[in-house]
Amino acid sequence: MDKVPKDLTDNDVVVVGSGAGGLVAALTAAVRGLRVTLVEKAPYFGGTTALSGAGLWAPANLHVLAAGQPDSLDLAREYLKHTVGDRTPTSMQDAFLEAAAEVIAWLEEQGVRFSYMTGYPDYHPGLPGGLLTGRAITPKAMRGPDFAAGGHPVHPPLPMGAGGPPIPEVGPEGPVWGGQSLIAMLLTACEDAGVTLLADTAFTDLVVEDGRVAGIRAGELTIPARAGVVLAAGGFEHNAEMREKAGQGVVARSDWSLGVVENTGDAIRAGIALGAATDLLEDCWWAPGFVKPDGTPSFILWERVAPGGIVVDRDGHRWINEGTDYNTFGHVMLAAHAEGRPVIPSWFVMDQHFLDTAGFAGLRPGADPTPWVEAGALVRADTVEELAEQLGAPDLVATVERWNAAAAAGVDDELGRGAPDSHERQLLAVFQRYPGIAGPHEHPNPSLAPISSGPFYAGQLVLSDLGTKGGLVCDEVGRVLREDRTPVPGLFACGNTMASMMGHSYPGPGACITPAMAFGHLAVTAIADELAGAPR
Q1: What is the pLDDT of residues 289-312, one digit of tens each?
Q2: pTM value?
Q3: Which of 13, 16, 383, 466 has its CA 20 to 30 A from that of 513?
Q4: Do 298 and 422 share a domain, yes or no?
């Protein structure tokens, strides 16, 4: 454990967890003049946020409006009505919408910089209120020396290419982007504001005095909190027992999760022990994944919209539009599995041209896939017929023939991939701006290319996740609620410790991280406002 500062006995707020939600909560407290300590279980800061691309879905934020996008809170409210629906209270959705753009503007004032993700679409742009050109932003990249000068250990990034386009390797001069950049900027702002930051300090329990949460325990260490505790410690994706009890079963394995291994539900269990209500425990932020030769999962994101790769079940049938957003992909996969279809795992089928121009799951474009074949992570064959035999997928040959005919015609009549103004067509246009991804090709539809250049490959596609979605039920300012919907005094939550106000939906890139930041900010604002009228 880090050396414990002597002033730990004098806190207004204690924050548990150092993802974006926890750091924003801590920063809000410090800027409001409160004494705040943040504890992090891991020996480094950032949680799963640090592993992410850190897209942020904040409707009508200043960068989206400055880019000339036709966005507004009313438009976004209509969109949430048709995506989230009535699965969560409208009051929670409104609280998020009112706070999201505000917290982005406020963070800019604290030195955390963002820019518009040009053209990155909402995940359901065809629904009322959706935007094909998107309303997402991303943290600005940092130079390597600026990142290193931050002084606080940020969770190591995923291996290059393990989720996202094959952008150039990071050199000593940078750039550092995505979640790494966001966490580093937030840590710097917290340090400048006077937040006490403790890594390698695992939360174990809540301290309750006179019916009010009055601090936390971290092993043998007790850290009091005069005004409140904010639980921002992620979900329980790496707690197999909790996942099984929540009804996720064997189809959602902890070793397939992309969340950091420290996310074992500690904070959620502590809230439940105090009578907190829970919701959405059966759900996750789903994502298709691939298990690499080293046994770690990779997020299959952009590969699914690159032309020339298809997803088939174990019999060899296509069963989904490959460009379906990753959360919906998981829900469709679960529904198909429940109907008895052999989709968990599925196969991602591609040819040599695909690997040479796009790469796959961290295998760089043009790299020799032989080590992955020898390790059993990829199956290789000289012909599609041989590949089908090796996979035990009797209908694969006919499926590839139909796909190749669709690529020649430029129309996927079977599942509608690459339709004009579609989500996956727009995503392909975005990803093609990255180095290493092939741009326009000779086929009529940029989203469709034949699988015809041997040898041919297949990799198992599993049901992965970016974290669990269920947690403690909270109100519009992040107060943790009991079953009777009365608040647990002094206890707040945000991020994946909180039951998501997004319900079963995932409206756009960053629909997980941005609410964490918004409700972390709202929670501590409520604490500070209450303290402003109390004697100190």
Answers
A1: 999 998 889 999 989 999 999 999
A2: 0.95
A3: 13
A4: yes
